[in-house]
Amino acid sequence: MRKMLLSLALAGVAVGAASAPLQSKTASTAWAGGEILWDSFGVPHIYAKTEAGTFYGFGYAQAQSHGDLLLHMYGESRGKAAEYWGASFESQDKWIAANDVPSRSIAWYKAQKPQMRADLDAFAAGINAYAAAHPDKIDPAVKIVLPITGLDVIQHAHRLMNYMYIASDRRVLVNPATNEAGGSNAWAVAPARSASGHTMLLANPHLPWAPSLLTYYEAQVTGPGISLYGATQVGLPVLRFGFNNDLGFTNTVNTISGYTSYVLKLADGGYMFDGKVLPFKTVDKSYKVKQPDGTLKTVTFTQRYAVQGPVFDLPGGTTTIALKVAGLDRPGVLQQYLDMGKARNWAQFEAALKTLQVPMFNIVYGDRAGNILYLDNGILPKHPEGGDFAHWSRPVPGDTSATLWKDVHPYEDMPKVFNPAGGFVQNTNDPPWVSTWPRVLDSKKYPAYVAIVGPMSQRSQMSNRLLAGTNKISFDDFVAKKVTTTALMADRMLPDLLKAASTSDDPDIKQAVAVLSAWDHRDEPDARGALLFETWALIFAPNNFTSQANYAEKWTLDNPLETPRGLKDPAAAVAMLKQAVAKTKQLYGAIDRPYGDVSRFHIGDVNLPANGGMGNTGIFRTITWGPMKNGERTPVAGETWVSMVEFGTPMKAVGMMSYGNSSQPGSKHANDQLKFLASKTFRTLWISRADVEKNLEETDKF
User: Fold this and answer.
1) Which tens digit of pLDDT belongs to each residue from 203-232?
2) Which residue range(s) make up the domain with 557?
3) What is the bridge-based pairing of β-strands 247-252 and 241-243?
4) How far apart are CA 555 and CA 557, in angstroms?
5) Cα atoms in the 13 Å half-sphere on the side-chain side of 563
6) First to last CA, the chain
7) According to its UniProt record, which residues of this chain constitute the active site (predicted)?
8) Of 65, 77, 184, 643, which one is the catalytic site residue?
9) Is the pLDDT of residue 15 over 60?
10) Which of 2, 166, 420, 682 could be disulfide-bonded to 258 (CB atoms 3.0-4.6 Å)?
11) What percent of the chain lies above the pLDDT cut of 90?
């Protein structure tokens, strides 16, 4: 402990009472002279005299709002979670070690520009400063991770981006279709479609609500060359969703195939490659596991490497693969996001995009000058031999150099839509082909492995339908469209279902017809048909409402906003309605139970009737519900960070962090924004310092 405190003191941190300043008199001037103004929703507004100072303040702020989560994640990203907290983290630590994340992170840290290294060190120092000044606010179980270094910050970003989003152990070793990343909505509307003549931008990620690597944090950062408002994931020192006075950008998860698994043919202690037996390169590795009695057990293993990368045995033991991940030679993901946030015009923003350091994510952009962009961004392997997306998403033969990719596609190759005639771009995690309407991208002009063609989700169809047309959209319209709770699947399917069921004499069917006929297809608290329809829809379209087996007409790119549709077998659909009646009664007690009785926005002592629903039923205001527990169901994922801006003078900006801006125990900001989610309203985002000072909760100086 004494060594830890000494390290903190040497980093310019005052150790001791909670009233201590953020730094001591010996602190580096690289971040001195700044302050954090905390508004009444727990949002930090950081003002600093240097770039490193903005990072220092941001690190301090994240530690105050999410300290326990932050330190736990950094311990995990070090690959020492099992050493700190026990055997439940052993497989995770082994995955990190086997993929050389710790050693590569050292190289990545050294490869940063000197200013970025100083920024990372400052962010870490800010975290350490908070922990030293407020030791009573940090869970003793995570204090073992302290002190944090700049290397920890880059290692966490590396693990999150490359070995969670792109190549998690579950995705590589168990199921390539695993989605570790969640979903999102994004819109940009051009001046030609805006009633005010100004660009509008929506940022709306839909990640899990439980505290994790995917938890969002809202902040404003102001310093030399940067004045950015937005959000990022806890642990990252840069904003991934942001806007300044001139432009804004957001991300949605895309379907990029950023790694390749190669099936090896084992032979004579090695593996076959181009007709020869090659020996594995081997490296002995180890990690520690904390035992129930507190002692540490060292676990050693031998990691094999083939020409493609590290080697793993898949569950079952009959298949051995080698893993090649794109982007491991590109350490600038944090630099690219910083440069995107610093940009003040399209040319500067595109220059940042062209560095292609961010390994995945669609990027949607809008600016004051009237430009809008959709980009299917990512570090995508180039496969000269062809093959489609499904082929490269599964393990491919690894006994030949013909499948071994050596390069990645440049920015210029990636699908993008810039200033389309329809006046908007959108994405809801679908492939890029219908990112605006009328459609402008032709999938045939791109390699088949870039993305699947379809089917297009009904949420994406609803997104397009909300914006398509020639009408002018006001900012109030923009906000109202965002909170649409109408289920497109209900609009499309209920007329046929009710017609097919109208002649039934079955009492259950008659009651169901009456309930569904009276419902307006919106998932609102007082809706009495929403639960029954959702239950029927999941029976009709299993696999999370995505199966098209029971539709009369499947989805087609030629008619992407009107398909799938129709009942393939009307009698079978009515029989499914009979099943849904029984299932709805079983789950919710009655088929006409008000939606908000059981669907709740509930965190701590705040428990409110909910709106919004399952995105795959075509609901734009997405809430993914967990199972019933204690008479209610609460969100697993869905609405998290939302910002909507219009680049007028003055700017209009509203938003919300659904689950609040703090996960620390006892924080009043852990549930203070649920009221906006329940009422379908938003906070005014306080951009100017004058507005922040009018709504000030506390101030920290450093």
Assistant:
1) 999 999 999 999 999 999 999 999 999 999
2) 488-619
3) antiparallel
4) 7
5) 14
6) 24
7) 184 (nucleophile)
8) 184
9) no
10) 166
11) 93
Q: What is the CATH number of the domain that holds 443?
A: 3.60.20.10
Last residue of a domain, one of 127, 158, 178: 178
Answer yes or no: are the C-beta atoms of 367 and 428 closer than 8 Å.
no
Query: Domain check: are 215 and 362 in the same one?
Result: yes
Task: State whether 566 and 422 are in the same domain.
Answer: no
H or E element, residue 1:
none
pLDDT digits (tens, 9 = 90+) for 491-528: 999 999 999 999 999 999 999 999 999 999 999 999 99
* C-alpha distances in Å from residue 631, one per residue of 52, 589, 677, 678: 49, 10, 21, 19
Query: In b/e form, how buried is each residue of 657-670, taking b as 16+ CB within 10 angstroms?
Result: bbbbbbbbeebebb
What tokens does 260 get? 């390749």
- Domain annotation covers residue 385: no
Q: Mean pLDDT lowest for which of 27-36, 133-142, 398-407? A: 27-36
Same domain, 165 and 193: no
Token pair for 125: 């120092």
Query: For position 546, which CATH number holds?
Result: 1.10.1400.10
Give the C-alpha distances (Å, rounded to integers) separating 76 from 84, 145, 238, 260. Answer: 9, 9, 20, 25
* 557 plus 454 within the same structural domain: no
Q: Could you give the CA distance from residue 13 to residue 130 in angstroms, rounded to a whole number?
A: 8
Q: CA-to-CA distance for 298 and 87, rounded, in angstroms? A: 12
Does 659 map to a domain? no
**Domain end marker among 482, 502, 524:** 482
Q: Does residue 587 sit in the same domain as residue 509?
A: yes
Phi, psi of 563 (to 5 degrees): -125, 155
Distance (Å, rounded) from C-alpha 146 to C-alpha 125?
Answer: 11
H/E stretch holding 465 reads: helix 458-467
User: What is the pLDDT at residue 28?
Assistant: 61
Task: Please indicate, yes or no, if residue 642 is contained in any of the structural domains.
Answer: no
Do 504 and 448 reside in the same domain of the chain? no
- Kindly report the length of the chain: 702
What SS3 string covers 440-462? CCCHHHCCCCCCCCCCCCHHHHH
Q: Which of 23, 24, 224, 45 is closest to 119 using CA atoms? A: 224
| Per-residue pLDDT at 317 | 86
The owner of tokens 């949002």 is 43
For 164, which DSSP code?
I
The span from the CA of 442 to the CA of 146, in Å, is: 51
Tokens of 295: 């002692």
Question: Per the domain annotation, does 515 fall within a domain?
Answer: yes
68 Cβ contact partners less than 8 Å away, ≥ 6 residues apart: 138, 139, 142, 663, 664, 665
Q: How far is CA 560 from the centre of its chain?
A: 26
Burial class (CB in 10 A: 0-12, 13-18, 19+), 694: exposed
232 close to 671: Cβ distance less than 8 angstroms: no
| Positive/negative CA dihedral, 16, 20, 22, 24 | negative
Domain count, the chain: 3
Of 675, 643, 671, 637, the C-alpha closest to 656 is 643
In this structure, what CATH number is given to the domain that contains residue 130? 1.10.439.10
Which of the 8 DSSP states describes residue 402? G
Give residue 28's Cα distance to chain centre: 35
Shared domain check, 474 and 336: yes
**pLDDT tens, 560-599?**
999 999 999 999 999 999 999 999 999 999 999 999 999 9
Distance (Å, whole) CA 418 – CA 30: 39
Task: List, in order, residues 6 or more apart from 294 with CB less than 8 Å away.
Answer: none
Question: Which residues lie closer than 8 Å to 612 by C-beta, 6 or more apart?
Answer: 485, 523, 619, 621, 622, 623, 638, 639
